[in-house]
Design brief:
The protein has four helices and nine strands, in the order ββαββββαααβββ. By secondary structure, it is of the alpha+beta class. It has a three-stranded antiparallel sheet, with no helix packed on it. The termini are far apart.
């Protein structure tokens, strides 16, 4: 399941069934937000909190402003990534693959240089950068920023 905001971020989630996703949606979407969903019965309880626009895919893909094209686009790219990039997505790692695909989808119009700067900026915000110093009984690791040390024994 994917929660997507127009011109915003996407949040993927993995559930055993669509009915389990309702609490996830309620926790992450503001009240009275317009939600687009298909005709599955598991989305019926969303009407009490959100303005829900439903679409029956047997009749049309988009009708009276209701469509799920943003979600369909995401899942199409995820399926193509499974075939062309990953070759297999194991069930235990499905959420991680979905999160990566979501990041790629959200940043597909951002230049490569800006993407690298964003990713490296995340790495620079980490608290500790360890330097390995040889020691007669092992190695001692010292953080450049906080100067904490950690001893790592040598394995023979």
């Amino acid at each position: 399941m994917i929660v997507r905001e127009r011109d915003g971020n996407s949040v993927p989630a993995v559930f055993n069934s669509e009915s389990q996703a309702a609490s996830f949606i309620r926790a992450r979407i503001a009240k009275w937000t317009v939600v687009h969903a298909d005709e599955a019965a598991s989305w019926d309880n969303l009407h009490e909190r959100f303005e829900v626009k439903r679409i029956n895919h047997q009749e049309a893909y988009s009708l009276d402003g209701a469509c799920t094209n943003m979600a369909e686009e995401y899942f199409s790219r995820l399926r193509r990534a499974e075939i062309g990039i990953h070759h297999h997505i194991a069930g235990a790692y499905l959420l991680r693959y979905a999160q990566e695909s979501s990041w790629r989808e959200d940043n597909r119009r951002v230049s490569n240089g800006d993407q690298v700067n964003r990713i490296s900026g995340v790495g620079r915000r980490q608290v500790c950068t360890l330097v390995i110093i040889p020691h007669r009984l092992g190695r001692r690791r010292i953080c450049k920023k906080c100067r904490r040390t950690r001893f790592v024994p040598v394995r023979n």
